[in-house]
Amino acid sequence: MTLVLTELPAAAQEAVAATRERVAALHAELPRNDLVVWTAGNVSERVPATDPEVPGLLVIKPSGVSYDELSAENMVVCTLDGAKIADGTPDALTPSSDTAAHAYVYEHMPEVGGVVHTHSTYATAWAARGQEIPCVLTMMAD
């Protein structure tokens, strides 16, 4: 049975709406800070629990949607096993292909409230070199 957002208690619906707003705003920061290219990378956030009867939920970017097309309304809502709920978004908007990894973190690490996954051009370029990151600061040695 699919969970339906509009059938959840009002407090849960409000928590989802607020989480969608935050996740959409955070996605806008990724291209602004040159942390992603095209549609790669994503942010998710655990929806704060409001009712013990409501299963754990997360909000994540829909797959393949460009950053300039993102809004709070098209952020996808999933259960902590990664299944999309009936959240008011079109069926064509599917959760990010990385949803399972995000859901795994939330399921096994209850203290985690958010996950950011980027494809920074700097990190990607360094990884392509196939070399370890050198220890150049004393803080890195600690």
TrEMBL record:
One of its GO terms (biological process) is pentose catabolic process. Its cofactor is Zn(2+). Its EC number is 5.1.3.4. The keyword ATP-binding does not apply. GO terms for cellular component: cytosol. It catalyses: L-ribulose 5-phosphate = D-xylulose 5-phosphate. SUPFAM superfamilies: AraD/HMP-PK domain-like (SSF53639). It is an enzyme of class 5 (isomerase). InterPro entries: Aldolase_class_II_sugar_metab, Aldolase_II/adducin_N, Aldolase_II/adducin_N_sf. Keywords: Metal-binding, Zinc. Residues 21-142 form the Class II aldolase/adducin N-terminal domain. GO terms for molecular function: aldehyde-lyase activity; L-ribulose-phosphate 4-epimerase activity; metal ion binding. The keyword Manganese does not apply. Belongs to the aldolase class II family. AraD/FucA subfamily. This is L-ribulose-5-phosphate 4-epimerase. The lineage of its organism: Bacteria, Bacillati, Actinomycetota, Actinomycetes, Micrococcales.
